């Protein structure tokens, strides 16, 4: 377990399996986010982590208090400071981060991130014009842990990429499908203009397209090279069978 000394107290982030054990009983969706989401997408560890992020929707925020019953919950309100999140308190729009620890003086274990929704869509905090149907913002690891789709996580990391964000981008890029590459490139262009990641996304899309074209060409060549088969002969029908009268319909309908 990594221990990080932060200005507001030390961190010993929970592992994704621990998060799943705590949050799996919630009657609402949740997703592992941040760098751990990238690791769950590629299926292997990449680096040390200073915290672990869990994303929930604003409408579901009070389920977190029940999932972490007995813990301390502190809201980043205003950002850069912490105050207690009181039981049954609905955090206002603009408050997005909650630090959680099992008790006073213990290391922080989980950071909950609250995201917005509208008409069945997830709405980005970075740019309200960036949105996706809620059914399409998450995936699940091989052992069933839900995580934020990597293209959405990369979009959040793209504002001011740090070295660890660049490492996450490079690591997960080969795992992104065409639709994910296209969505991320469009979202970056819409929000940031000419973002440096867009060149790498374009190169990956071109490489994928060339690979698909090569596969289709190989399949076509293989099909053209198949030998022609002789036509199948129809079975010979005897004269007696052609002249045999049909059985009356009512003779077999019992």
Task: Describe the protein's architecture and organization.
The structure is a single chain. By secondary structure, the chain is α+β, with helices and mostly antiparallel strands. It is built from eight helices and twelve strands. It has helices spanning 16-23, 34-42, 61-67, 150-157, 163-172, 178-192, 197-224, 239-243; strands spanning 4-6, 9-11, 31-33, 53-57, 72-75, 83-84, 97-101, 110-118, 121-123, 131-133, 138-140, 146-148. Helix 4 (150-157) packs parallel to helix 6 (178-192) and helix 6 (178-192) runs antiparallel to helix 7 (197-224). Mean pLDDT is 88; it is low at 238-254.
Features:
254 residues, alpha+beta, 12 strands, 35% helix
Number of helices: 8
How many structurally independent domains?
1
**Whole-number average pLDDT?**
88
What fraction of residues sit in β-strands? 15-25%
Largest sheet, if any?
A: 8 strands, mixed
E-strand count: 12
Structural class: alpha+beta
CATH class group: Alpha Beta
Query: What is the 3D shape?
Result: elongated
For this structure, the CATH topology is Beta Polymerase, domain 2
Roughly how many Å apart are the termini?
A: 76 Å
- Helix proportion of residues, in percent? 25-40%
Over all CA atoms, what is the radius of gyration?
28 Å
CATH architecture label: 2-Layer Sandwich
Order of helices and strands: EEHEHEHEEEEEEEEHHHHH
Uncertain segments are 238-254
């Amino acid at each position: 377990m990594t221990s990080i000394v932060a200005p507001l107290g030390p961190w010993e982030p929970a592992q994704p399996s621990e998060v799943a054990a705590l949050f799996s009983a919630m009657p609402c969706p949740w997703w592992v986010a941040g760098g751990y989401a990238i690791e769950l997408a590629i299926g292997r560890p990449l680096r040390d982590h200073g915290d672990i992020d869990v994303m929930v929707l604003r409408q579901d925020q009070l389920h977190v208090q029940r999932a972490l019953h007995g813990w301390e919950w502190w809201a980043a309100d205003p950002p850069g400071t912490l105050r207690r999140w009181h039981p049954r308190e609905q955090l206002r729009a603009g408050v997005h981060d909650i630090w959680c620890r099992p008790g006073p003086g213990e290391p922080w274990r989980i950071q909950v991130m609250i995201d917005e929704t509208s008409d069945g869509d997830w709405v980005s905090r970075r740019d309200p014009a960036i949105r996706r149907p809620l059914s399409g913002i998450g995936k699940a690891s091989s052992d069933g842990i839900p995580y934020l789709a990597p293209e959405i996580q990369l979009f959040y990391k793209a504002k001011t990429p740090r070295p660890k964000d660049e490492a996450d981008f490079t690591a997960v890029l080969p795992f992104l499908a065409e639709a994910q590459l296209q969505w991320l490139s469009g979202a970056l262009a819409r929000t940031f203009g000419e973002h440096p990641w867009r060149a790498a996304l374009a190169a990956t899309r071109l490489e994928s397209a060339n690979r698909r074209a090569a596969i289709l060409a190989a399949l076509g060549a293989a099909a053209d090279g198949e030998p022609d088969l002789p036509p199948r002969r129809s079975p010979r029908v005897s004269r007696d069978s052609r002249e045999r009268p049909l059985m009356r319909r009512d003779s077999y309908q019992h």
